[in-house]
Amino acid sequence: MTLIDSDLPRGTPSDPPPDRELPMNAVGGSPAVASPLPASPAPDGVIERLVAWAVQQRALVAGLVLALVGAGLWALNTLRVDAFPDLTDVQVQVLIEAPGLSPVEVERLATFPLEVALNGMPRVTRSCARSASTDSRP
User: Fold this and answer.
1) β-pair partners for 24
2) Distance CA 34, CA 31 (A)
3) What is the pLDDT of residues 17-55, one digit of tens each?
C-alpha cells in the first residue's frame, strides 16, 4: 500500500513534493522510514560467498542435496543393527585332562603355571582358575 501526497496534511516542512509517493510500512500503516544502516556491500566473507554461490547454482545444489539424501537412505537400509548387542567379555576356557592326578596336583602342576603365564598377557582384566575332579567325558 502506498501513500499519495494528497492524503498527507499540508503545512509541514517535511512534506514530499506533490508528484512523489511514499512507501507505507506494512506493520503500522505509517510511511516507511529509510534504514540508518548502509546497504550491505558485496559478499566478502566465506559464508557470504558460499551462500551467493549456492543461490547462483541452484540446480547443482539441489542435485547435491538429492544425492546426499539418497546416500543416507541407502545407508539406512543397509545398516546392520543389533537389537541386543553382545556385551559379554571375551572368555577362554582351558580344559586339562590329567588322568591319575588329584585336583591339588593338577592345581600345582598345570593350573597355577598356566594362570601365571596368562596374567602377563596384554588387556587381561581378570583371571579365574578352578581345579576339580569332574565326570569323565568320552
Assistant:
1) 31
2) 10
3) 555 555 555 555 555 555 565 665 666 889 999 999 999
Domain boundaries, the chain: 46-73, 91-126
Cell of 15: 512534506
Backbone angles phi, psi at 8, to 5 degrees: -85, 145
pLDDT at residue number 14: 55
Place of cell 529509510: 34
Give the Cα separation of 114 and 108 in Å (integer): 10
Residues composing the chain: 138
Q: How far apart are CA 138 and CA 135, in angstroms?
A: 10
Say if residues 114 and 94 touch (Cβ distance below 8 Å). Answer: yes
Angle at 83 between CA 78 and CA 85, to 5 degrees: 105
Q: Please tell me whether residue 42 adopts helix, strand or coil conformation.
A: coil
